[in-house]
Amino acid sequence: MDYASHDIPYYLLSTAESYQTCLAFFQKLKELNYPLRVLVCDDNSNIYRACLEVFPGAVVQLCQLHYLRSIRFLLRLDLNYHYRPFFFALCRLFKHRYSELSFIQELTQIIQIHYPDRLCTSILIDLEAKKDLLLGYLHDEEIPTTTNLIESFNSHLQGRLKSIKGFDSFEHATLWLNGYFLRRRLKPFTDCEGKFANLNGFSSLSLTKNPNLDLPLFFKLAGDRI
Fold this sequence. Notes:
Order of helices and strands: HEHEHHHHHHHHH
Largest sheet: 2 strands, parallel
Strand order of the largest sheet: 1-2
Number of strands: 2
Helix content: 40-55%
Number of helices: 11
Number of domains: 2
Distance between the termini: 21 Å
Shape: globular
Radius of gyration: 21 Å
Mean pLDDT: 91
């Protein structure tokens, strides 16, 4: 999803987020002349490696919320209560948009307290290795630090799929998704809040299409009927 316009310039249905699948996705965005500058994604190296292969100048921002969730899973906090102070210290580390220097200072304090523990040490080593990806927001104050936008969209999609028991084939699923995304791109926004309130009353496609091009009547009618 495009962050500023909430538009969906392209989608690809696949069985897995493999490197080849992600590469095909970003290559298609390139063909569409999509001006990708920033990628906010989960901590899946296939996604950001493929992105940087096609858009080498892009800034990557790992979703800090998902990163913390993966750490919570590794620590198994429901069973290992003694790891809670360590996890809460990491939560505080991501609570603010720290400068790189402040981030390193906070991280150093956590290391000094928890370095004797092997599991904590392995997590801290991974965090240090991915520091630049976790601090992508330093390149631009408008860069979000989570994938909340697409998670919200995904919740809406899951709600629509609840009434569907399944698809007869991959092709049928793709056809359904094509109609779903067409509807989403043509339907005017009504519930955007905060800095996105200005999107209300407009469809995402109307905000991103070439202003010199008119949508064929077919798409306008389809958007009304889907």
